[in-house]
Description:
Blueprint lengths: L14 H7 L4 H18 L2 H9 L3 H14 L7 H11 L6
Helix pairs in contact: 1-2, 2-3, 2-4, 2-5, 4-5
Amino acid sequence: MRAGTARGAIRLRGPAEIARTYPNTIIGRSIRLVEEVRRALLQLGVRAAEDIVVENERTVVELARLLVAIVWDKLGLRADERNTLLKVLQAGGSI
């Protein structure tokens, strides 16, 4: 049997698929924020990544921080990236 076809079976989606499927939800925006901050850290540095965080809503930033803290491996992050992202996401967001 395939996953999701049996009674009570569920299909787990990856973070990228969730962000694409539900782009305007808080979870979709939070996953995109993690991706944007990660990309900014690699390409532009810490200050640019902090600027991206500050421009986002506080609830989106808080959920992104929770996602990084708990499911960092599912997001494709290494342990050192996780620690750096958590520090940058502590910058908070707008009200």
